[in-house]
Each structure stands twice: as structure tokens, then as C-alpha cells.
Amino acid sequence: PYPKEDMGVYAHLGTFAMHGLKPGGWLVAMVGNMYLPTIINGILASGMEWRWQMCVHFAGGGHPRMREIQVFQNWKPVLLLQKPPVTSIEGWAGDYIDYLKPKPGEQDKSLHPWQQSLPTFEKLCSMFAPAGGMIADPFLGAGTTGVAAMQTGRNFWGCDISADAVKTSEDRLCERG
User: Fold this and answer.
1) Which of 71, 70, 79, 97 has its CA nearest to residue 39?
2) What is the pTM for the complete model shown?
3) Residue 166, class by beta-carbon neighbours within 10 Å (0-12 exposed, 13-18 middle, 19+ buried)?
4) Residue-wise pLDDT tens digits, 96-118
């Protein structure tokens, strides 16, 4: 969720992660830049440990306009937090994800206004959950995280406050088996 009035959900996300993750589990959240301090503080209040921030760069046109400050947003932060005890990522990982030549459909917003790039989420799933592991997305939207989890051999659980989003995601996930 990106609007200012929705920023309180990030405190709930931190609480959800503290209760649902196993020790050493990762909370990986792609968020907007506008209210970043509020988002980070909300999650940290739960007891999650700050680990790092990644950058996902979105090439091409159609970037959201942050009218309040007159900036085009062409990247988003991905926050990396961990339920104690903290550990390292398995293997080495870069903190910049860039798709300079998006494939057709990667910037598709036809299923949900905040629909995200499937290759980005496939990469994140592979980096932060072992094969056969569980990925949860309480902001389901169009189900991109679920599709990415399935395509990378991970299990998936998701929910959303929008019944339409849940239906769209169910249809999309069922198409893929």
C-alpha cells in the first residue's frame, strides 16, 4: 500500500512477521519512497531487525509522478528486515535489481493498479526463501508474489482486504497449476 492514509499497515506487517516468521526469517517488502521513515519505523516497532535496503530500478516510461515534490519515481526500495537472531543471506547478492529491457507484460498493470514485475519477485523469492520454503504476502494484489513463489519452487500463502484482488489472484494462480 502506498497512500499516506495506509501507512499504519506497516506496523501490522511487522507484527505479522514477528508472529509468523521462524527465527532468522526475512521480511522483504517493496515500498514507496514518499513515506519511507514512517514505514521503517512502523516495522521496527515490532521488534524486527533492520538488515539492509535494496533498489529495484524500473526502466522505460510510465513512472509514477510524486506530485507533492515534482519527482518521477523510477525505482523503489525493498526493505530487508529479519526476525532475530539475524543471519546472512545464503551466498552473495547484489542490492540493485535492474531490468533495462523489460519483456512484454513485465510492467503490466491490467490486473491491479500496483501490479509488480514478475522477474523482480522471482529474484526476491529465490534470494530469501529456500526451495520448498514458504512465502507469505498479506498485500496480495494481483498475486505476482504467489506466481513468483510457485515458479521458483516455493510454497505460498496470501491474503488481501479486497475480495476482487483475492479472486484475481486465485484465478491467476490456478491458471499456473
Assistant:
1) 79
2) 0.87
3) middle
4) 988 644 555 455 656 555 556 78
